[in-house]
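Training component of the fellowship. As part of building independent skills, the fellow (R.M.) carried out the full modelling exercise for a liganded target. The chosen ligand was pyridoxal-5'-phosphate. The inputs are recorded below so that the supervisory panel can assess the work.
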Amino acid sequence: MRRSAELFERAQKLIPGGVNSPVRAFRSVGGTPPFMTRGEGARIWDADGNEYLDYVCSWGPLILGHRHPAILDALARALETGTSFGAPTEGEIELAEAICEAVPSIEMVRLVNSGTEATMSALRLARAFTGRDLIVKFEGCYHGHVDSLLVKAGSGMATLGIPDSVGVPKVFADTTIALAFNSIPELEQCFEWYGDRIAAVIVEPVVGNMGCVPPAPGFLEALRAVTSRYGALLIFDEVMTGFRVAFGGAQQRYGIHPDLTTLGKVIGGGLPVGAYGGRRDVMSMVAPSGSVYQAGTLSGNPLAVAAGLAMLKCLKAHPEIYTDLEARTARLAAAAPPEITVNHVGSMITFFFAKGPVTDYSSASRSDRARFSRFFRWMLDRGFYFPPSQFEAAFLSAAHTNRDIDRTADVIHAFFASS
Ligand SMILES: *Cc1c(COP(=O)(O)O)cnc(C)c1O
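Fellow's submitted model of the complex:
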């Protein structure tokens, strides 16, 4: 790891912590991160020439693996006509059509550049539509680094043990109520107290950002019922789960229709794209058709849209990808011994180093993080790149084969036999 170590030294002089997103720095597992130079299918290579089987998949976007030919083709074609116009292009309509067709609760959609932008904009819209200020979220759910949502957030915040980011004005944090995921009694109590002041409930319908935690039976139904009863909007943050746990996202998988949905990751095909969409009456409030301001110089960027569209077309043409991915993920899950807890939905999976069940943030945080770190190192040293945190989901791509899974399982077995 000589070359990576040198690059990390150099990066730390100019980039905070040496990285452009905190979890990449490997702080919770120790050591320094390999710098990546190339990817192909399910494999990536670092600056020292080491090869890894990639279970991060760029944190979710690469459901078809690295350098999928359909996406490369679309990008090459887009490059021939220009990289950005700041004017409308036909590709944006096609991507909007593909999204609305796949996700039935989305009647209108606005493209942005990241998941964070999508959730931030959806909250503004929900507040405008309801004329209310309060937002309900769930502990351990991460919705991007939006000020008012950096309260009891998962992902990098959980990894670094930061309860709430500094720099968020108290008045913003005070507009957020954080409840335990999967607790229907807490939800109902909260609405009894504050129901007429709550603009929206935002939730990861399958949580990925405290590790993978599925919704308990009835939980999403309860969210739908209570928000409707009190006139609050239900926002599914499907930045991770959209086109990942099913083609139509978690809402298709569980049959619940939210009012608004946020998307990102997979819809960009590996380029920066986010989106928020939903009910026509709500989305019509977005400028310029309505008075909720939201804009973006590079929103609907032709390259990003071309990659995203190629991704969605490919997934639509091959629905068997989802059943295959699910079967392979179950095969990987079976590698874990009963002393730990494996949660998986679709092609999201987390090995929690804890006695289960893991159903919310407090049960997730009972994991033995030191042992997780040893596991992470063990796998990395043998060429298996897992997320460098107990509180992140791992992902499979369509490029992972049964043989890849079985090789991974052997190395997992060896870890548990040796420790
Ligand atoms: C990744 C993620 C975000 C943030 O998206 P960025 O593109 O990183 O800003 C928001 N919500 C969920 C559920 C995510 O997984």
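The panel noted the following from the submitted structure. The mean pLDDT is 96. Residues 114-116, 119, 142-144, 204, 208-209, 237, 239-240, 264, 274 surround pyridoxal-5'-phosphate (CB under 6 Å).
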